[in-house]
Amino acid sequence: QVELVESGGGLVQAGGSLRLSCAASGIGYLINAMGWYRQAPGKQRELVATTTRTGSTNYADSVKGRFTISRDNAANTVYLHMNSLKPEDTAVYYCAAGRSYPSKAMNYWGKGTLVTVSS
After folding, report:
1. With helix as H, strand as E and coil as C, how does the chain read?
2. Neighbour tally for 59: CB within 10 Å
3. Which of 8, 56, 82, 96 could form a disulfide with 20 if both were Cys (CB 3.0 to 4.6 A apart)?
4. Are 34 and 22 within 8 A, CB to CB?
5. For residue range 21-30, what is the model confidence (pLDDT) as tens digits?
6. In degrees rounded to 5, what are phi and psi of residue 95?
7. Closest to 55 (Cα-Cα) out of 33, 77, 37
8. How far apart are CA 57 and CA 47, in angstroms?
């Protein structure tokens, strides 16, 4: 059974930093696409950042220059380093993962971790 477990969320002041982690288990292959999405209260879920095994990355315009996605391919683990956090970054952050190369679709989702940025 595939499971994605996020950690690292919490309360931080504006301008601060957090690092989110997500470990995938129950997967018997090396995942290609992994990423982070978020959903703020009253809004739709949106892409934050994604990455593939080959190292390509994609970021939402709103987080470019502030957030960095990285991963440990062998461990099927993905991280989101968040700097210069803003109150508008407050949301539940979800980890997502797909299947093996070359698929870029996200097939599995974590339960989410709450990030709250105070002004």
Report:
1. CCEEEEECCEEEECCCCEEEEEEEECCCCCECCEEEEEECCCCCCEEEEEECCCCCEEECCCCCCCEEEEEECCCCEEEEEECCCCHHHCEEEEEEECCECCCCCCCEECCCEEEEEEC
2. 19
3. 8
4. yes
5. 999 998 878 8
6. -85, 145
7. 33
8. 12
